[in-house]
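Example (one chain per record):
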Amino acid sequence: MTLRPASLITIAVATIASGQDLVHKAPPQTETIFIVGATVHPVSAPPIEDGVIGFENGRITWVGPRTSFEGEMNGRLVRADGMHVYPGLIGANTRMGLTEISSVRASEDSDETGSITPEVRASVAVNPDSTLIPVTRANGILTVATLPSGGTIPGQASVIAMDGWTWEDMTILDDAGMVVNWPRMRGGYAPFDEPREVKNPLDEITTFFDEADAYLAHARGTDLRYESMRSVLEGEAPLMVRADDLEQITSAVHFCNERDLRLVILGGHDAYMCADLLKAHDVGVIVDGTYQFPHRDDAPYDEAY
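Predicted structure:
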């Protein structure tokens, strides 16, 4: 049997199209579902023995003990006796959907050109077909904050769900905060370095924030870079600062305190050294991870905990 060129093209297009959607999406919910008999852990309240969880139109409509459930359970019943049900976990500091394989540049979309790009928003660059999404979801992480990287101010973090056909479907919160990579505060040069002028490492950040303040106070026209700072400067969104060293963390706290900004520290390896300062200024810390070596020769082996 011989195939005409048109048939070959059709088969090729169909094959390519089927390969584009590697991530299976959940279809819309068409019937009410009840999980019955499990121990439900709502986290904000004590565990519920012999609990019931009801779903309708993709939303949880009921959580409670079976004895207090009113009405009939008309729908699909999922027996979960002896099992435990927990809320989905949240990945608070990720690059989900922005990166696939770090060694393949074409799959990296987390770093924009330029040092200061606050107008960049992570959500619009999320790849819904990332093969990392179903793996993450299968391990109980249903929501993540995905953050841009690179430069001094790489852009805005976004909160996304681990399911959806498009980035619009997945996006829960477009502007979850402005990411800033805080500069190292320690000076010093190698013996072979040429003498040069010592600059304040915060000059770039301070200058940009001063310009953004001036723009918002006397805006004439539209500048997307400064407009994107509005939610942070008006206290609606936090400043999410990547900082690990004690000097970086304390510098970021004082900077935000002077400007009355909400602050969240990302990484925070030395956060335990200034816990009182962080508590006094109500600063949240999102720890990078616990499976890592100590960062100093004299640090305890369990420093990450």
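Caption: The chain has three domains: 33-87, 88-176, 182-189+199-305.
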